[in-house]
Inverse folding.
């Protein structure tokens, strides 16, 4: 039994060198590669996060206040879709977003998402058009709330929201 | 845990999940803002709850208990590993179901807001934990290393939770666990939401108990493999000139009677 402790080098010629050791080395190398890939993914997500999420959008008030510095750079603009402002166009839709008493006219290319509605806050991605106060966007994101209120039972079954039953 | 109890939890998870599906799809009403899309509220939050608070919370507690000298035991290490593995699956499902919900409601599959980004970071962090477990090391070394890694990764959990309050996000605030603790959901919708949390927590517990057993068995197999391969090399060293044993893996006969041809060995067992 004492010979069990014999070092790997004792093995006779022709026997493959310590299989357990090389397998462990291979496993080690493979897991280090996986860790490196994950570290790269982590850095990428962190960079994107720090670049985007800390200052995710400007409200209408902020955008108007910083219009000069914003120039024609692309940013996300948040505001509530104002009543009587929505007009479908060939490119998509024109509407105004507001915050308090200030508002910005938006010209959007592409059709708005399903939940787009007057009175809901939206985030539009785009830029001020050539020094004017018109915001040209190519993406609308609807910012719905965390409140879940049931549709009153008499109003059920609108065509777009027919229940599964 | 006794097999009967484990089976009981599994059955309870199945029944409560089935009840959630029935209530969520047929009994609860559509909502004013989202119509039928609101039904995803009975899936996505409960999955996120499982991943963040139950799975990663449990793994953090287990890691602390392992690091604390008085409670140090490989039991905590294995439980943490089982919990993280299930948690990673739920974390990935959180991102997938959130994406599926986001496309029709927000209009995008993905956006770089703080909630989404920190949740994706959480997945990568705990995938790192699982990769770290695969780095060969002594069980105690690995356990200590992984316990520290789990605690470091867990730092992101409160960041995910508060991201919607700390930064501007597209993702909405908490419906139930909000600052003033007044739920923004009522009636059958609230009960179904609660049931979905119970159902998926039961599913998590069942999965972790199964996964824990696998972890124990894996450690046992690891030890046996080590003994077998030692014994094999031993036999090779003694029988100089004998043909080397070709296949690695458990073949204890090779140690007992290496001179007997393979065919006869196979026949003798029957």
């Amino acid at each position: 039994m004492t010979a069990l402790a014999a070092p790997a080098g004792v093995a006779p010629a022709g026997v493959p060198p310590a299989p357990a050791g090389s397998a462990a080395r291979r496993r080690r190398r493979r897991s280090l590669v996986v860790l490196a890939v994950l570290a790269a993914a982590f850095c990428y997500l962190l960079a994107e996060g720090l670049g985007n999420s800390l200052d995710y959008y400007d409200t209408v008030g902020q955008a108007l206040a910083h219009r000069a510095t914003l120039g024609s750079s692309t940013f996300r603009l948040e505001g509530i879709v104002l009543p009587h402002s929505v007009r479908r166009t060939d490119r998509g839709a024109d509407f105004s977003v507001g915050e308090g008493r200030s508002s910005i006219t938006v010209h959007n290319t592409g059709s708005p998402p399903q939940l787009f509605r007057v009175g809901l806050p939206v985030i539009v991605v785009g830029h001020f058009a050539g020094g004017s106060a018109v915001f040209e966007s190519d993406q609308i994101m609807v910012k719905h709330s965390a409140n879940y209120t049931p549709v009153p039972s008499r109003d059920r079954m609108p065509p777009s929201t027919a229940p599964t039953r | 845990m006794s097999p009967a109890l484990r089976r009981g939890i599994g059955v309870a998870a199945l029944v409560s999940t089935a009840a959630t599906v029935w209530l969520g799809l047929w009994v609860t009403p559509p909502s004013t803002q989202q119509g039928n899309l609101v039904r995803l509220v009975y899936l996505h939050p409960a999955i996120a709850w499982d991943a963040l608070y139950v799975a990663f919370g449990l793994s953090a507690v287990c890691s602390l208990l392992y690091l604390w000298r008085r409670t140090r035991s490989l039991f905590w290490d294995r439980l943490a590993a089982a919990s993280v593995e299930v948690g990673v699956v739920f974390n990935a499902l959180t991102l997938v179901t959130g994406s599926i919900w986001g496309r029709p409601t927000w209009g995008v599959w993905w956006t770089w807001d703080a909630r989404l980004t920190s949740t994706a970071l959480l997945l990568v962090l705990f995938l790192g934990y699982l990769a770290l477990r695969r780095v060969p090391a002594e069980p105690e070394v690995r356990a200590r290393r992984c316990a520290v890694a789990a605690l470091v990764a867990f730092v992101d959990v409160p960041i995910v939770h508060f991201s919607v309050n700390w930064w501007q996000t597209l993702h909405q605030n908490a419906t139930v666990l909000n600052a003033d603790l007044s739920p923004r959901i009522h009636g059958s919708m609230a009960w179904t939401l609660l049931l979905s949390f119970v159902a998926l927590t039961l599913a998590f517990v069942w999965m972790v108990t199964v996964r824990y057993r696998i972890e124990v068995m894996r450690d046992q197999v690891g030890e046996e493999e080590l003994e077998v391969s030692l014994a094999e090399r031993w036999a090779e060293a003694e029988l100089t000139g004998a043909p080397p044993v070709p296949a690695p893996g458990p073949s204890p006969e090779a140690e007992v009677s290496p001179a007997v041809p393979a065919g006869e060995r196979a026949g003798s067992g029957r």
Notes: Chain B has two domains: 3-210, 225-268. Confidence is low (pLDDT under 50) at residues 251-270 of chain B. Chain B has nine helices and no strands. Chain B touches chain A through 64 residues (CB under 8 Å).
